[in-house]
Structures are given as C-alpha cells and as structure tokens.
Design brief:
With 243 residues, the protein is mainly α. The chain has 2 domains: 119 residues, Serine Threonine Protein Phosphatase 5, Tetratricopeptide repeat, CATH 1.25.40; 66 residues, no CATH class. The protein contains 11 helices and no strands.
Length: 243
C-alpha cells in the first residue's frame, strides 16, 4: 500500500512497562520469574512448556512483552511472545485474538506475508471483539496486497470499516486500494475520513493529493502539499530548538 515501514498498522493497546519496567512472571509456580524482554533467548530456552500450567500464565504480560519487542524492532522475539500468548490464552478469547493480530503485524514487518495473513485469519476465526476483528481485517488487507492479490484486499479493507468505523487506518487502507482501482472520488471520501479521525501522516497526504489530482482538483491538492511542507518545516525547527 505504501513502503512497508510506512504502512499503517493497528497495534493493540498493551499496558507497557513502568519506568523502570519490571519483568513479567509466567506464574508463581512456573519455572521462570522476572523475565527481562531484552533477553532475546529466555522464552525459547528457559521455559519448559510441559511444566507450565496454562492457568498460571499472565497472558497480558506476554502480550506486553511482545509489544515492547515490536517497539525496539525485535520482530522475531515479538512473534515468539505473541505465539506463546495465543497458545496459553483461553480459546475464543479477546486475548487470543489480540495475540494473533499482533503476531501478524510482526510477521508483516519481516515481509512474511503468508504468515501474517494466516495470523490475521486466525484472529478473525476467533472473532471475539469488533475492534480486534477490524484490526485483523485491515492488516489482512495489507498482507494480501503485498502478496500480490488484487481483489481480496479491498474486500477485507471494507470489512474493517464496517466492523469499526472509528478505525482511521482502515479508512486509509480502503482509500488507498480505491485509488489503485481508479475510483478516486470514493477514495478521497475514505482518506478524508481517516484524516477526520486523527490520522496525520505523510502517506495519507500523498494519497489525498493523488485522488485530488486525478479528479482535477489541483488547488486542493496544492493546499495539502503546502500544509504538509509547513508541518515538516515546523517539526524540523522544533527539533533544532530542542538540540
């Protein structure tokens, strides 16, 4: 849809860590306590799965550790954390769906599109929460598009908007795909919706300009370009002042 690192993803809202953060505990009776998320081998090497009681595993902590790994671009470790969270989470639970969505996002960051699509489909199979299902739909659209499919991505992007009309990234993805199909008027409506929901990115501006120029609305396209340039200059000035 755009360059891989610029594509909008809908990450779950994890709890994060304090300052300083504390490690997570797989359970008071489990084999691992106070696991540090920067220790990239501990989950694979230190946990004997046969000795872990599923009801003692802190699923939220596993998801939070995965999100920490995503934040520092340690995607393989993130995938491992999310996979474990999905494994131990109750079947058909929102926690399991959240783990699958984020696992799919991490696979996408590694351009593992088939694995990403499979993870998002698993979240949709669970279908425990409209917001999570919308996130799975819009990220599945991105994964399928990157895999070279042309029809299914738009179907999933539209499903995402239906499931959660407040999801700005879903509106963006739908607008992008409609632009690709030459349906610029409807694309612009979607992209404007994304902007009204708070999405503020360079790639959104690019897609809005593309739609406007295709519709012959060159003045509006120029206005968006000017605002984007002014915003970039302001951010650069603020960084210089901070330095």
């Amino acid at each position: 849809m755009t360059a891989r690192n610029d594509r909008p993803h809908r990450y779950s809202d994890g709890q994060g860590f304090g300052d300083p953060y504390e490690g997570f505990d797989l359970g008071a009776d489990g084999p691992v306590a106070d696991v540090d998320p920067v220790d990239d081998h501990v989950l694979a090497d230190a946990v004997d799965e046969s000795q872990v009681r599923p009801d003692s595993v802190d699923i939220t902590a596993l998801i939070d550790v995965g999100l920490e790994y995503l934040a520092i671009e340690q995607y393989e470790q993130a995938i491992d954390s999310f996979a474990r969270a999905a494994f131990y989470a109750p079947e058909k639970s929102a926690a399991a769906a959240e783990a699958w969505v984020n696992k799919g996002i991490a696979h996408g960051e590694l351009t593992e599109w088939d694995d990403a699509a499979s993870s998002h489909r698993e979240a949709l199979r669970i279908d425990a929460d409209d917001a999570l299902s919308a996130a799975a739909e819009t990220n599945l659209a991105a994964a399928l598009w990157e895999s070279g499919e042309s029809t299914a991505p738009l179907e999933h992007a539209e499903a995402a908007v239906e499931r959660d009309p407040r999801l700005a990234e879903a509106w963006y993805n739908r607008g992008y795909l409609l632009n690709e199909r030459g349906q610029h008027e409807e694309a612009l409506r979607c992209l404007d919706a994304a902007a009204s929901l708070g999405l503020r990115t360079a790639w959104l501006d690019d897609e809005r300009r593309r739609a406007l120029e295709a519709l012959g609305e060159y003045d509006r396209a120029a206005e968006i370009e000017e605002r984007a340039r002014s915003g970039l200059e302001t951010r650069s000035l603020n960084r210089l002042r901070e330095e």
